[in-house]
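Structure tokens please, single chain.
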Amino acid sequence: MRAYIATTAGEISTFMKDGSWEPVSVYAPTIKFTTANNELDEEEAEYEISLLAASVSLTRDENSNSSGFVLALEVDESLVAAHNENTIELKSPLLWEQVDCLFICERGDDELTWYARQEISDLLDKINNGK
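Here you go.
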């Protein structure tokens, strides 16, 4: 199952360093979401959930002009403890190895810029150095 985490650059750095993380909210096209939005195919449902996570990411610091960050991960269904409306609860922490990619969103833009997991470290270095 594809899952998304609304996050910050600092949280991503910590996740990379520690190798595991228990985020508060893990967004996913849950059973409840897909049932309520049965007109969406799997790809469209994942896109809508990624936009929801991006929106949440941008509202974490409403006074900032900074970007929003969304990590996309693969989560095995066996790790899901519960399906909520737009989020899942997990039985164990997420591992960095589950990260597939990073999306960055800008305020006022409904497009997400994609970065492969291998590019995240370099991208965070540029962000932290103001470049």
